[in-house]
Amino acid sequence: MSTFTIFLVLIMIVAFLLIVVIMVQNPKGGGLSSSFGGGAGAQMGGVQKTSDFLDKSTWTLATVMLALILLSNIPIMGGSGIQSKTFDESAVPTSVPSPSANPAGNTQETPAE
């Protein structure tokens, strides 16, 4: 299993977790955090901590995903950063065919007179 494949699997796991954490939140105060609170006293302690946990986990998972995406480029580049392609001189033919004396490209011989 290549290093890029490992990074790809980790990115997919973090993406799934990030989707779950975001779907649990509700931007209007509902979601998972509102289902735990009953009275006004319980809302002050339990709901706020749940909301803070979901907020921090969202930012943490987003940061981890960004780091994994950036680190996944290292195996693609060969691990040494930016690589410049060098000109391969062995691919160049050593002998270049000379231009034909006949510019029209005819291969027929001219008749001798």
Automatic annotation (TrEMBL):
Coiled coil: none
Transmembrane segments annotated in the record for this chain: 6-24, 59-78
Source superkingdom: Bacteria
Organism: Aequorivita echinoideorum
UniProt xrefs under Pfam families: SecG
InterPro entries xrefs: SecG (IPR004692)
Entry membrane topology: Multi-pass membrane protein
Family: Belongs to the SecG family.
Annotated function: Involved in protein export. Participates in an early event of protein translocation.
Keywords, sorted A to Z: Cell membrane, Membrane, Protein transport, Translocation, Transmembrane, Transmembrane helix, Transport
Region (Disordered): 88-113
Compositional bias ranges of the Low complexity kind: 90-104
Subcellular location as annotated: Cell membrane
Protein name: Protein-export membrane protein SecG
